[in-house]
Amino acid sequence: MIDDRYELLIIGAGPAGMAAACEAASHGIRVAVLDNQAAPGGQIYRNVDRATNRQNRVLGKDFVKGRSLVEQFKQSGGSYFPGATVWFLDEKRRVGVLIDDKSFFVDADKLLLAAGAQERPMPIKGWQLPGVMTAGAGQILLKSAGMVPNGRLVLAGSGPLLLLLAYQYLQAGVKIDALIDTTPRGAISRSLGKLFEALPAADYLLKGVKMMLAVRRAGIPIYHGVEGLSAIGEEKLEAVRFDTGKTGFKKVTDCELRADTLLLHQGVISNIRLPLAAGCEIEWDAGQKNWAVTNDEWGRSSNADIYVVGDGSRISGAEASALQGRLAGMHASHQLGKISDSKLEVLSGPVVKSRKRHLSIRPFLDSCYTPSPRYLVPGDDTLVCRCEEITAGEIRQAVRLGCTGPNQVKSFTRCGMGPCQGGQCGSTVSLIIAEQLDKPMAEIGCLRVRPPLSPITLGQLSEA
Amino acid sequence: MDQDCIVIGGGLVGSAVAYGLSGQNQKVAILDGGDRSFRASRGNFGLVWVQGKGWDYPPYAQWCLKAANLWPEFSRQLGEETGTDLCYRRNGGMHFCVNEAELEERRKILEQNALHTDGEFQYEMLDHAALAEKVPQISNAVVGASYSHLDGHVDPLSLLHALHQGINRQDVTYVPSQNVSEISGKDGEFRVVSNGKTRSAGKVVLCAGLGNQRLGEMVGMNIPVVVDRGQLMITERIKPFLDWPTLHVRQTGEGTVQIGDSHEKVGLDDGTDPAILQKIVQRAVLMFPFLARVRLVRAWGALRIMTPDGNPIYQQSETCPGAYAVTCHSGVTLAAIHAGTVAEWISGKNDDPLLSRFGTDRLHV
Amino acid sequence: MFKTIEEPAEGAVEILVEGVAHRVPANISVAAAALLCGLGSVRETPVSGAGRLPYCMMGVCFDCLMKINGQPNQRACQVTVAADMTVERQLGAAEYEDL
Ligand code: FES
Fold first, then answer.
1. How deeply is A304 buried, as exposed, middle or buried, from its count of CB atoms within 10 A (0-12, 13-18, 19+)?
2. What CA–CA distance (Å, rounded) separates A232 from A424?
3. How many domains is chain A partitioned into structurally?
4. Which end of chain A offers a freer environment for a tag, N or C, measured as fewer CB atoms within 10 Å?
5. Which helix or strand (DSSP H or E) is residue B96 part of?
């Protein structure tokens, strides 16, 4: 049973959350970890301790690597609550959590949020059609269910995950009918300057090159610099079309490819709903095109008792996230009086160094795969809010009436008012407004987060 | 002179007044707050409500009835002009009572309402059986209800959107994200400074909710406001079950169920408090047990702007004539009368004797 | 539109999808099962009636809302299949039988 107070309460059992829990528990802290999945691992190591040999071969070494952290986490001695969804959270570190359909309130001396990343929306025309999913969804199906697309498959977008998924599908023997690369032309050559900085993380680069070569060798038709991408179909996806692109040295225009499944991806963004609910400050990271949570070298947010770490604070990848989790776990243990100043220094030194190495690849990746503005800010007839079915045009109309931010736009249009509460459309809405008013994102702000942070029935709420 | 009239505040009150003023060929500008301002309009329950209002202050009872009677025409006109469906329906409203004492108290209150309006306000008291005939899902815990066919409801956000579309069509200048730092002058020559820019106008109307206290001082008015937090919840869309709006539970045109509302004295905090949410839900579930299985989509707090006696303030400054203040917490019910009678009063074309009963002098005795 | 790459490792369970019995791998989500069973859409939106399939598979988008064991508007990607579970498409707004 869950207690009503912990010294350190961690939300999220991905690399950052697991590592923080291991570290803090090793110093004798009373830790509890709440996670909404059925097993530890987060998105990156989802289902890692149950995956079959076949799945492991397809998913690769980087996936299997997660097993040791999961093992360590299971033995850490901290309390772990799988299937726990946090529906309430405030700046006083009061957490409302639903476990087995029952709601509990838990207080925490220190709170650590490690909610991970979510896929950056890629609002193209027709993205709501059945048959269109995120590449992340495709990978989750592979990891958790050993499932792969059946029928004509197109992968489209930009970013390392798209390449990784293509590679994994090839390992699984899946036929990919086309790979559509929307990375703006010239992004890679412009990023070469950042390559030097990335050298300490040369292993990442090599993996990337290996995957790229494999995809080329497989003979998958690849289209580069694609503009004007849309999904076409009446009741479901029938085709993918685009205005212009290049394959090899050949320019293609008005291209239409039949497709049953289209998997979209243009990078990931931090899931900031929990930090926002807890009143943590955020900042717009222009390089990552991401709302990042303001935190210090220990992962401490603007609220000194709340740590926000991992991809949920800023996109940094699994390894760097785990290391950041460790640092936060150490620091919390220090703050709670379990380790001395000097011990903190000794313990943290190597972790900081190793984290730095893993982070050195980021500027190159961010610059290489920076999403094209055309795919961040969609045209008027594209749906932005999938729940309330609000188009970019309707949002622009509200801005013309004088709305200056997403919260007013929401009042006027219902955009962000549906079941997902803006989790899916929020960042797009702010980007549209910023472009239209020609103002920086920091001035536009983001949708205000309110409870419930995950679904709860009125009955569950009233009996908490 | 830049404008005939500058309206400060662009919520339900300010935009209704501006809509009315520009409808009378006044050249109007609205100076509004920003995206994250405290906005009472976002916390509105959407009731166009008469029953119980002003039971202890006859002018308010009369005023609300008048406003509600203006609504059908107001809604038709605004809807037609802007092509927006306000989801306005005047099909009567109910208030549920969970014990005999509540029912008796309710009856007494509504009796007063009828008395104050020379019987124009009409109502019925329904016992459980009569209520269950209209609302079959009502639980046995509800012993009865008051009902008045004069009540109605509307989508408050569609109303706000439509008012803004309306003022946009009428060429009202709308300036968002403003912070008014100075108002000076008098009738015919006001200067309003906001975000470092000065605008001149013949008249100034303060519709800034909470801000009216500070702004009022600039033009010699003492406008006492009390902040009152209400927490609200909205559920997933469900199939229609409740045709009538009530003070605690209302099913919207989209099918979501709005549940509220609390009265809390917590200052400038528009957050949520789970303990209070629980109380609100418990009452709703007591009335409609199936609601226990319905999913909550959002809970939020909004700040109501109350006057000390709960009745609106309509006041022209004595020392700076031409400056007006409009302060109230019933921005929806009164929208029709703000766009009509009140806008006419400000432009000097209406001298409804009721208006004189809403001056600040009643509060400063 | 999806298939499995191998026989399920941990056995299979039988669930009732739109009234038809299907054997699906244990431990997968209802959304995954719905895709495996070939449903053309898992819900019709209450706004326009358009059909949707799961989109994110990680609890963000709410496009996988289904009626599971009679409970409307459940995120199918967040629910694990269980023997004899009934899974139905969510058609428009939620309906409660005593409503
Ligand atoms: S598929 Fe997005 S929430 Fe389930």
1. exposed
2. 21
3. 3
4. N
5. strand B93-97
CB contact, 8 Å: C99 with chain A?
A: no
- Amino acid symbol at A282: I
Strands B313-316 and C20-25, bridge-based pairing: unpaired
The domain boundary, picked from A230, A248, A266, lies at A266
Residue span of the structural domain in which A259 resides: 121-266
Tell me: pLDDT of B90 over 60: yes
Any domain includes A359: no
Domain contains C99 = no
The answer to whether residue A277 is domain-embedded is yes
Residue A230 counted as domain residue: yes
Q: pLDDT by residue (tens digit) across B241-299?
A: 999 999 999 999 999 999 997 899 888 889 999 999 999 999 999 999 999 999 999 99
Q: For residue C92, give how far its alpha carbon lies from the nearest alpha carbon of chain B (Å).
A: 8
Interface TM-score (ipTM) > 0.90? yes
How remote is the CA of residue A262 from the centroid of ligand 1, in Å? 16
Q: Are A384 and A391 in contact (CB under 8 A)?
A: yes
Q: pTM (2 decimals)?
A: 0.95
Instruction: Note whether A150 and A209 are same-domain residues.
Output: yes
Residues in contact with B51: Cβ distance below 8 Å, sequence separation at least 6, in sequence order: B93, B95, B110, B113, B121, B123, B146, B148, B150, B151
Neighbours, chain A (3 or more CB pairs < 8 A): B, C
Question: What is the span of the domain harbouring residue C48?
Answer: 12-90
User: Does residue C31 fall inside a structural domain?
Assistant: yes
User: Which CATH number is A237's domain given?
Assistant: 3.50.50.60
Contact between chains at C93 and B255 (C-beta distance less than 8 A): yes
Taking the Cβ of residue C53 and every Cβ of chain A, the question of whether any pair is shorter than 8 Å is answered with yes
- What is the number of the ligand 1 atom nearest to the C-alpha of A137? 1
**Contacts of A337 by beta carbon, 8 Å cutoff, 6+ apart:** none
CATH number at residue C39: 3.10.20.740
Query: C32 CB less than 6 Å from ligand 1?
Result: no
Per-residue pLDDT of A19-40, as tens digits, reads: 999 999 999 999 999 999 999 9
- Rounded CA-CA distance A406/C57 in Å is 26
State whether A77 and A10 are in the same domain: yes
C59 touches chain B (CB under 8 A): no
Give A86-114 pLDDT, tens digit per residue: 999 999 999 999 999 999 999 999 999 99
Cβ C56 under 6 angstroms from ligand 1: yes
Residues A322 and A394 in one domain: no
- Taking 90 as the threshold, does the pLDDT of residue B43 lie above it? no
| Residue A350 domain-assigned (yes or no) | no
For chain C, how many structural domains are there in total? 1
Q: Ligand 1, residue C76: give the atom nearest the CA.
A: 4
pLDDT of residue C98: 52
> How confident is the prediction for chain B on average, in pLDDT?
94
Instruction: Name chain C contacts of B255, Cβ cutoff 8 Å.
Output: 46, 93
Going along chain B from its start, the domains and CATH numbers come out as 3-49+157-224+311-363 (3.50.50.60), 93-149 (no CATH), 226-306 (3.30.9.10)
Separation of alpha carbons A216 and A230, rounded Å: 24
C43 Cβ closer than 6 Å to some ligand 1 atom: no
Chain B residues touching C73 at Cβ < 8 A = 236, 295
In a domain, C4, yes or no: no
Domain boundary (A250, A266, A282) is at: A266
Look at residue C59 and tell me if it is in a domain: yes
Q: What is the C-alpha separation between A82 and C62, in angstroms, rounded?
A: 21
Answer whether residue C74 shows pLDDT above 60.
Answer: yes
Locus of tokens 């989500």? C29
pLDDT of amino acid B336: 98
CA of C64 to the centre of ligand 1 (A): 5
